[in-house]
Design brief:
77 residues; mainly alpha
């Protein structure tokens, strides 16, 4: 994980924290269905921030495949 991925994950956790606390408050305050819904949204935010592929990795992977294909095409001539 590089710095940008870490900051993105920190932002996701910063947004998910209050939503998760609201979910816990709703669960303890006689609204369990809404509370579970808020907790699910909070977990999805953090999981999405953690497990999403890095943009730099996608770009680098695409460029690496392009370079490899170009080298193979050049060697085939």
């Amino acid at each position: 994980m590089d710095l940008i991925d870490t900051l993105t994950l920190f932002g996701a956790v910063a947004l998910a924290g209050p939503i998760g606390l609201l979910g816990v408050e709703f669960i303890l305050g006689d609204r369990p269905i809404a509370g579970v819904g808020f907790l699910a949204v909070a977990v999805a935010l953090v999981a999405g921030g953690y497990f999403r592929p890095s943009i730099k990795g996608i770009v680098a992977g695409g460029l690496a495949e392009t370079v490899q294909d170009d080298e193979e095409a050049y060697n085939d001539r």
